Amino acid sequence: MELKVMSFEDGNASGSVDLPDTIFGLEPRPDILQRCVTWQLAKRRAGTHKVKNRAEINRTGKKMYRQKGTGSARHGPAKVNLFRGGGRSFGPVVRSHEIGLPKKVRVLALKHALSAKAKDGGIVVVDKATIEGGKTKALAANFEKLGLKNALIIDGAAVDVGFAQAARNIPNVDVLPVQGINVYDILRRQQLVLTKAALEALEARFK
Question: How many domains does the chain have?
Answer without folding.
Answer: 2
